[in-house]
Amino acid sequence: MTDLFAQNLSTALTVTFIGMAVVLAFLTLMIFAMDITSGLILNVLNKYFPEEIKEEKAKTKKKPANNDDEIALAVALAYSAKTGGR
């Protein structure tokens, strides 16, 4: 009986190893095939449908607004409201 068990275990491990090797080989082959075909397809697509190159316009820096008068007025109004106009 143990001889039959050992034989079945050996067969099971062999089938498992062969199955895993086949799956590994297929996935490796599929990755290489996808890599090659994606490169070919992108080359063909870029040849017939090139992407537009957007030109960047020179950006002018805006000067910060001088709000000193407005800030002084807001502070004066807040102070006046707090002290009751005194």
Structural commentary:
The protein has 86 residues and is mainly α. It has a domain at 1-51. Helices cover 73% and strands 0% of the residues. It has two helices and no strands. The protein is elongated. The N and C termini lie far apart (109 Å).
Instruction: Estimate what percentage of residues fall within beta strands.
Output: under 5%
**Mind describing the biggest β-sheet?**
none
Percent range of helical residues = over 70%
H/E element string? HH
Number of continuous helical runs = 2
- Inertia-based shape: elongated
Low-pLDDT windows of residues: none
In total, the number of strands is 0
N-to-C span: 109 Å
Structural class by secondary-structure content? mainly alpha
Radius of gyration: 38 Å
- Average residue-wise pLDDT: 88
Label this structure with key terms:
86 residues, 73% helix
In short:
The chain is mostly helical and 86 residues long. 73% of the residues lie in helices and 0% in strands.
Write the layout of secondary structure elements.
Blueprint lengths: L1 H47 L19 H16 L3
